[in-house]
Amino acid sequence: MTDNKVLFTKEMQKDYTILIPMMAPIHFQLLRNVLVHSRYNVELLENTGPSVVEQGLKYVHNDTCYPALLVIGQMIDALKSGKYDVHKTALIITQTGGGCRASNYIYLLRKALKKADLGFVPVISLNLSGLDSQPGLN
User: Fold this and answer.
1) Element (H or E) spanning 77, and its range?
2) 10 neighbors 39 (Cβ within 8 angstroms)
3) Where are the beta strands (DSSP E) in 1-136?
């Protein structure tokens, strides 16, 4: 763990599942396929409904934009579902690197994970700006 972030290491590639939020169905299905082809174990989340919203409201400040609340809620809902070994699961989220609020989703997600007692779960930033690099994802 460095600077309040848990690293996703090369060793974790072998036995971790990476969860991808459903932010844009076509685009994130492509992302899933690219990662699978690169030999990562990934799953595109499909959980929806009131529990996603409830988890988002519980762990994200209510002034946060609704899309962030839903994405973070979806990820925490998945982790708390019992379907995944939370000690062998990582999350991936896009990060724009510009002035868009989406650049901050990763920090909001890490803060929410800590609040949910899941601060040990690695969060991988997927970006083209060289932000928040992780040794386990090239």
Assistant:
1) helix 66-80
2) no
3) 17-20, 41-44, 89-94, 123-126
The model's pTM? 0.90
CA 126 to CA 138: how far, in whole Å?
A: 10
Quick check: helix, strand or coil at residue 90?
Answer: strand
Domain ranges of the chain: 20-126
Q: Which residues contact 101 (CB under 8 A, 6 or more apart)?
A: 65, 68
How many residues comprise the chain?
138
Sign of the Cα pseudo-torsion (26, 119, 61, 105, in order): negative
List the Cα angle 96/136/123 in 5-degree steps.
50
Which structure tokens are listed for 45?
């989340």
Query: How many Å apart are CA 71 and CA 18, to the nearest integer?
Result: 15
The string of pLDDT tens digits covering residues 86-118 is 999 999 988 876 656 666 788 899 999 999 999
Q: Which residues contact 82 (CB under 8 A, 6 or more apart)?
A: none
What residues form DSSP beta bridges with 92?
Answer: 124
- Mean pLDDT over the full length of the chain: 88
